[in-house]
Amino acid sequence: RFEHRDINAIKNLTKKNLAIGINIQDCGTQEECECCIRTKMTRPPFPKESGNKTKATLDLLHTDVCGPMQTMTLGKRKYFMTIIDDYSRYTTVYFVKTKDEATMYIKQFVEMAKTQYNKTPKCIRSDRGKEYVNKELQDYLKIQGIKIQYT
C-alpha cells in the first residue's frame, strides 16, 4: 500500500504507534529504485532576472490582447489589452470591444507617454495577431520612430 514511500517515514509511523499491524523487516539495502530516483528529480529554477533587461522606462513595451471573455463588462467589452513596461513592470490595462481597437489604444498610450514623461517608447513587442500586424499601426510606429518586435 505504501508503494515507494521512504522506509524511514514508515518506520517513524510504527515507532509512534500511528500505524498498527505493520511488520517492517529491514532489507539491508538503502538503494532506491529507478522510479524513485526519476520522480525525485527536479529542474533548476528559472533565473529571477533575465539577462536582457532594459536600462530605462519605455525602452521596451510588451502588449497583448486577451479574450473573448465569457462575461462582458458593463460597457459591452469582451477583450482586454495589456501594455507592460519591461523596465518598471508598470502595467496598463484597456478593456476593448474588438481586437481591432488595439491600434487606437497603442496610439493613445504613446501620446500619454509623450505628454506625461516627455519620452517616446523605443520598441513594442507583441505576438503576430492581426491587431498588431496591420498597415495602420506599422505606419504609425514607423513615423514615431518606434521599432516593433514580434514573438
Describe the protein's architecture and organization.
This protein is elongated. A five-stranded mixed β-sheet has the order 3-2-1-4-5, with helices on one face. The chain has helices spanning 7-15, 34-39, 102-117, 135-144, and strands at residues 61-66, 79-85, 91-96, 123-126, 147-150. With 151 residues, it is of the alpha/beta class. 27% of the residues lie in helices and 18% in strands.
What topology emerges from the helices and strands here?
Elements: H1 7-15, H2 34-39, E1 61-66, E2 79-85, E3 91-96, H3 102-117, E4 123-126, H4 135-144, E5 147-150
Parallel strand pairs: 1-4, 4-5
Antiparallel strand pairs: 1-2, 2-3
Organism: Anoplophora glabripennis
GO molecular function, one term: metal ion binding
Protein name: Retrovirus-related Pol polyprotein from transposon TNT 1-94
**Sequence stretches where pLDDT stays below 50 over 5 or more residues:** none
CATH fold assignment of the largest domain: Nucleotidyltransferase, domain 5
Strand content: 15-25%
Architecture (CATH level 2) name of the largest domain: 2-Layer Sandwich
CA gyration radius, whole angstroms: 28 Å
Helical segment count = 4
Average predicted local confidence, pLDDT: 85
Summarize the structure.
The protein is α/β, with parallel strands linked by helices. Helix content is 27%, strand content 18%. Strands 3-2-1-4-5 form a 5-stranded mixed β-sheet, covered by helices on one side.
